[in-house]
Amino acid sequence: MDPNSKYNLNGKLDSSKISLKLKPTPILFRTKYGGSPPAKRIKLNENGVNGTAKKAITFSNVNGHSLKPKVNLQEQRRNLPIFDKRNKLIELMKQHSTLIILAETGSGKTTQVPQYINSARLMENGKIAVTQPRRVAAISVAMRVAQEYGNGMSIGDYVGYSVRFEDVTSKKTRIKFLTDGMLLREAITDRLLLDYSVVILDEAHERTIHTDVLFGIVKNAQRVRVERHLPPLKIILMSATMDVDHLSKYFNNCQVVYIEGRTYPVQMFYTVKPHDNYQTACVSTFFKIHREAPPDHDVLIFLTGQEEIESCAHQIRMLSKDPEVEGPPVKVCALYAAQPSMQQMAVFQPAPVGTRKVVISTNIAETSVTISGIKYVIDGGMVKSRTFHPSTGMEILKVQRISQEQAWQRTGRAGRESEGLCYRIYTKSQFELMKKNSIPEIQRANLNSVALQLLALGIHMLHFDFLDKPPNDTIEAAFEQLQLLGAIDDINSKVLTNLGRKMAKFPLDPRFSKILLSAEKFGCLEEALSVVSLLSSESIFLNPPSKREEAQNARQKFHSGYGDHLTLLNAYREFENIGQNNRKVWCHEHFIHMRNILYVREVRSQLQEICKQCDIRGSSCGSQMDQLRKCLLSGLFMNVAELHRDRQYITLDKRQVTQIHPSSNIHGQQPHCVIFTEVVQTTKCYLRGLTTINSDWLNEVAPDYVKNHNIKFQRDSS
Ligand code: CDP
Ligand code: MG
Fold first, then answer.
1. Could you tell me the EC number(s) of this protein (predicted)?
2. Ligand 1 binding site (Cβ under 6 Å of any ligand atom)
């Protein structure tokens, strides 16, 4: 293929139309780059990364050759860039109590370093914890490592994993992969992490809130263990990007080691003009590649979230079957955090010979997982992220431009095994306008949960040793909310109330824990448990793009005029009444996601267990839905919005103008007053996940809030 050629799709394709009839959507690209971008961004020499981290060591890779995917596991291990440096790395890990390891994605950090530590017996009697920001990564690498150990060892034996609501470990487990959120929860009962000899905080560059807090927790645990003559704690920080001066300084100028990976040149293309509909542009670009590239060249597309990915997957599946479209058969795989584990695992399986694999992923595939066979990357240039606005009190889920750093990571995915190509669905000038680095989550997210967890550890967030401090107004907002929920007596308090201590036991947002803890009072624990579990899992409703109406009709009987939460509850209640043998058919008939609803059940039983530990008496409100709605309000009273004028809702707390999201089942109903669980921003601000309430309940359920915050309704609820 001539990389400089502009192309159009010759009237073949309008991927935005599900009718699949073709209209020109020419995407013009121009080449701006040939070469592998990320490696040159930072210079490493014996003075360290950019000269500051004192004793950094640079390894270079002399015999760069491509990985052969079909060789056996042990051979694959030996082929990884990290393998040649194994002994040196073990030596360094022995010498240093804290070490930062930098290497390109796919070098073998996550899967190999824990095994090296284990084989060199660096962990004495303790275990190795390896954190991952996402559950999919924790599960997939744990499975991979268990497989590499072989000898019929199954997951949960020597190698296990622990993610929210799923613990696959046993007494025998020595290497434990867990989400950063899970390790933080473990720290509540084991502040010094005495269960572990080595803690590996992986994907440190992602800077999730939990990893950021863990930086402080492990640093403190390491120091205190030395002071108290307890067994030492070794800290390993692993990252795929290069800017680690800051991190090294924070860990007392610790040693940094850089392992050069094998990256191959990636030819890059920018679009000639901006494309607002990046999703359609991605599909069009895919088909351009599809017509021209050999079948074993796989494609990775970066989009932002489940809906977008599923709809893009659908379009590609349908279009690729169209006899007018040239190209080999296609295996389409979606990859997003919310997916059931089994489906996620399919992404890692190679496609049959002669079939092209296309993986459509969120930013998960940027650095946390490696998929072999990728030769082409299509970068939509967007990411969905949550941002908290202390001034409005709202946490908004919004699709926004990625950072340049993310763009480079995405590009790099095309050059893992051989030379590749990357199509950026944005112009060169759009790229230049992108932020250089992403803002760490701790500086943009709601901190309620973390503030509560730190308090459970006896730490007030204001006095915590952060790598980067969160903004003061966000900290204040978090404490204010915890006080309103009754978890602390006043905002400077360092101790949790009785209620607060119970709230910290749940792996939930404090508002949801509060709902469960209020359920006894409203006599609706059964229902509250179901609703909170449904909200803690992925949607149980399937909405295949081609059968949307059919799905809605099939579920019509679950519809509740009280809103989305109660509609979900109705579906869940019916599911529970169906005999085990009929479940599959029932799910199919009602467009219910079977795996997701079974997961809800699992979550529910775990939350029920914690409720028992908190001595909450079981109860059910039967058909008295007011009880349940009041109970939901007891946790979500800060998320109330009132109908202002035609279709416009104003939030009571900070008076933000919003609308009900079209996907809500009470969209168009215009109730006077609602509670919401999510705010989504596209062109407008939308409320999603709703329950209607009576406005006079607010004073009954949260009188202090109404009084102290001067909360007023503009209209009567008549
Ligand atoms: O952590 P890092 O990105 O440096 O690499 P890794 O996750 O340890 O992956 C090393 C190699 O193992 C990848 O290039 C894949 O070939 C393989 N791998 C895999 O096949 N399946 C997994 N679930 C994880 C890794
Ligand atoms: Mg990794």
1. 3.6.4.13
2. 80, 103, 105-112, 140-141, 144, 348, 370, 372
